[in-house]
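Progress note, project year one: complex with guanosine-5',3'-tetraphosphate.
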Amino acid sequence: MSDLQDAVSRRRTFAIIAHPDAGKTTLTEKLLLFGGAIQLAGAVKARGEQRRARSDWMKVERERGISVTASVMNFDYDDRTFNLVDTPGHEDFSEDTYRTLTAVDSAVMVIDAAKGIETQTRKLFEVCRLRDVPIITFVNKMDREARDPFELISEIEETLAIDVTPASWPIGSGRDFLGCYDLLRDQLILMDKRQGDVASQGVKCEGLDDPKLDELLPAHAVATLREEVEMARGLCPEFDLESYRAGHLTPVFFGSAINNFGVQELLKGLGELAPPPRPQPADGRMVEPDEPKVTGFVFKVQANMDPNHRDRIAFFRLCSGHFRRGVKLKHMRSGKLLAVNNAVLFLARDRELAEDAWPGDIIGIPNHGSLRIGDTLTEGEDLRFTGVPSFAPELLQRVRLDDPMRVKHLRKALEHFAEEGASQVFKPMLGSDWLVGVVGQLQFEVLAARIEAEYGIAARFETASVDAARWIECEDPVEMKRFVDSNRANLAEDHDGALVFLSRNTWHMNRTQEDFPKVQFLKTREQN
Ligand code: G4P
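Model obtained:
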């Protein structure tokens, strides 16, 4: 096996999806703890606090107690290298989350054992399904009053229409939660609350009839376990790797992240079951991860991480090849060559210069605005990765300035944020007021705060008489011209110069669609 193939086979790039409060932060922290990437639980939060304290615009985030920015954490466990891509859980930031999911090969879905599938879990799951991202489920908070495991399993099965199979089976719940029986390895893993951060070793059993179980567990607990496992095995499909990797079946682990319980099993499960970097779709062909030449795409841009420098970090997912510091990559959108000398790898506690990186890894490339979401970089070949989407904004507002002299500055700020993917900006064909579109209301507040903090401009967002935005495409140039000529007052350009139709209400949208049946009104657009 070549070094490249070896590195590919050991990489696991994944994201955690969860409804807020299900325990994503706690689980992330524990994964890093077991991965040896951090010494103390609480470090993720502490790091977050420091970062927040440095950055003014994040005040909004702090006040609302939500995590706005996604980041990447690289750690090793059991001879595997994991890249955990964090996704913001708050629903107002789902667009960023959607794009983040284009950069991972699998996902862990965290569910609160008392609440089951919640709205945001379902939305994020649907995005994973669109791309056939395989999902491992972690039912968290088993140390609290939890719902019956059978009930949870059928809820997942029914609401998400996916096959479900338990990978472990909980013994009791709440105060009586004793541990889990590992169904894939036939072993018992008991919970040791006193051991704190040290994980207990599992006790190997020869199946459920092993008398060791009777020695280790109270009689009623063993009886229930035997009965429930027999039922579960009868009712649920057997675990099937292919079906999981195709996104049709999810194995379920039970645990309690706060007590470190079930976390190691989950990590082992990810290492053994989750797929290594998958082939990525580009125009014309699929790019295999063990191709020798470097290719990859930008899925996220974060601007102004340090307000004193207008620097930006482009988060670049490597799709193939062995990246070495200094490698010259072709930026497909501009055709220019880029010598990548100062890219960083995101370790859990720190960043370090990326000397080497392999497919599945995510590196941060500092730049001054040349790299945008959706951009492809290659070691020479002309290809573009597809599938990094822009979503039509669900809310549109007009932006107003207190000081009209600063209009140019405001435009620059809005363009920066649009390039970062934080919002979309539309320049109407007629009139001078720009419109800003976002997916969730909270983003307007974040934007206003950032415009003030990072550009020193006081701006307000006001209601606009616009209800929806749709990208326009039409294969027939004559029809396109007829459409543009008769809708000039409702047309705008986005920051890339793509044509957008702004409707006043549903009736207006439907009517225009009926009048121009050859014109397509698109809710999503691929970047570039
Ligand atoms: P999130 O990132 O998905 O929003 O969730 P987070 O990890 O912040 O967890 C939400 C709350 O649930 C936190 O409590 C956390 O301590 C608690 N929690 C997480 N995992 C478990 C678990 O396995 N068992 C129990 N009992 N609780 C769990 P909080 O009171 O909101 O915050 P904090 O004061 O503990 O930080």
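The chain is about 30% helix and 30% strand.
The pocket of guanosine-5',3'-tetraphosphate is lined by residues 18, 20-26, 89, 140-141, 143-144, 256-258 (CB under 6 Å).
No further modelling is planned for this target in the current period.
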